[in-house]
Design brief:
Helix content is 78%, strand content 0%. Helix 7 packs antiparallel against helix 8. With 201 residues, the chain is mainly alpha-helical. It starts with 6 loop residues before the first helix and ends with a helix.
């Protein structure tokens, strides 16, 4: 007996499918077959294949933004918060396949969704950087400037042509970028130890 997916499970399964395969080589019929649902049910998400893709992309990135805000609300020490924040981005990138990246890059509308997502994530990161500077965990720097540098780099890193040239997945590229970022932000270990000792006295 065919098992019918609930609405949330359907959206999650469709998200997983499109993150790997993109939309170009799939018809609505293909998606319905893979998800074992009716075309009508998919058209309930949006009226066209392209709009279904937009809806799913927006849903995926909004979920990452919600998780990003949860990390900020925890009130963790800035180095821990930023490590978790950046790890979340790497985890999200690990779910994205080459076909998805290509289809995002080739659609002005979907690319704008990705741009807005990266802009919002970058502004949140700027808040964490400013807090880390204020509390002495990071070298003196301007959070918004750091965020603009990150945004510019992130938008170039995600390009399929660059990833192909560098022979990197999106996950690997962001992981390396974030490692360099954290290495540049954190004060050296000696100063960190001294400050921790001062705070404990």
């Amino acid at each position: 007996m065919k098992k019918t997916l609930g609405d949330e499970d359907l959206l999650q399964t469709l998200t997983d499918l499109l993150l790997v395969e993109g939309i170009r080589n799939l018809t609505v019929g293909d998606m319905a077959t893979r998800l074992r649902c009716s075309r009508r049910r998919l058209y309930g998400i949006a009226p066209t294949k392209e709009e279904i893709f937009c809806s799913i992309v927006d849903r995926f990135f909004q979920a990452v933004l919600d998780q990003s805000e949860d990390i900020i609300r925890k009130g963790l020490n800035p180095p821990v918060a930023i490590e978790q924040y950046l790890a979340l981005g790497v985890t999200a990138a690990s779910r994205i396949g080459v076909n998805f990246q290509r289809d995002v890059d080739e659609s002005e509308v979907v690319r704008a969704i990705f741009d807005r997502f990266q802009q919002r994530r970058t502004l949140m990161l700027a808040e964490l950087v400013d807090e880390g500077v204020r509390r002495g965990f990071f070298i003196p720097c301007h959070g918004l400037l750091v965020s603009e540098v990150i945004l510019g780099a992130a938008m170039r890193i995600r390009r399929p042509a660059f990833l192909a040239q560098a022979v990197l997945t999106l996950e690997e590229a962001f992981q390396e970028f974030y490692r360099l970022l954290l290495g540049g932000l954190l004060v050296d270990a000696a100063n960190q130890d001294a400050r921790t000792s001062d705070h404990n006295e």
